[in-house]
Amino acid sequence: MATAIKTQGLEITRLSGSLGAEVRGVPLASAGPAEADAIRDLLTEHLVLFFPEQHLTPDEHIAFGRLFGELEAHPNLSLGGERPEFFELRAEGGAGAIADEWHSDLTCQAQPSVIAILHMVKCPPFGGDTLWSNQYKAYDELSAPLKDLCEGLTALHDASPHHHPERMAMHPVVRVHPVTGRKSLFVNEHFTRRIVELSADESDLLLGHLTRHAASPRFTVRYHWTEGTIAMWDNRCTQHHVLDDFEGERVIQRVTVMGDEPQAAHPPKWEPWSAAFSAASWRDQKMRDFLKNRGDAGAS
Question: N or C: which end of the chain has fewer CB within 10 A?
Fold first, then answer.
């Protein structure tokens, strides 16, 4: 049975060997800068935190999120109106309306989100769990030759799963966390389309290996929800995956702390694979524009 540790008046229970902790003893509805600093330190240590029995109103949820930075609207799910930074997602089990692929949030943007803060408003009696994976560990457990290769590569991410393939961004395959200085793997099966320095076949092989490796069970924590739980995670060094194995309705509300530009562990080492940009399609032109504007392509 997990052992709770008390620090700064908080009760903290680790949930797995890789990441995740449940936190009790802080009412998030009235949290201020001091509580936010303590929570930020815990997030740096555990990567994903869970606060049961909170039941925040939308305005309390937004106010709590703003303690960690400026909030942004979700490009696909925002409710708009008076709360553009707040969104709600209602999903029926088996309907395909949840993110049941491993992903880091919105890597199709030039500045993917830093932190997500989710409120489980309604959950089914069974199923619908969420898994998170530690991408520091995913990088650390690559072989030395594969680390060296990946640190010199970049990847194209786009929003094709959300019917917006024109929303795309280029990111390093290995990024450096701006707070911890640690390296993490930064590709995912949901948004990452292509490693641009490799041929299509090579890219498929390497991406397939990396995305499977990133989701290895030894890197993960699985959380069973209860209504009123708040979860927050560091999107820069984790991926997550929702299990679509439930019946009935699942309702979440979420705010997102605006992102930063992923910093590469090493500048790109090679020119892009020319065959990737030979077609005259609009999509290929967009890829060429990204590389032209990147300004750091080529050997270094």
Answer: N
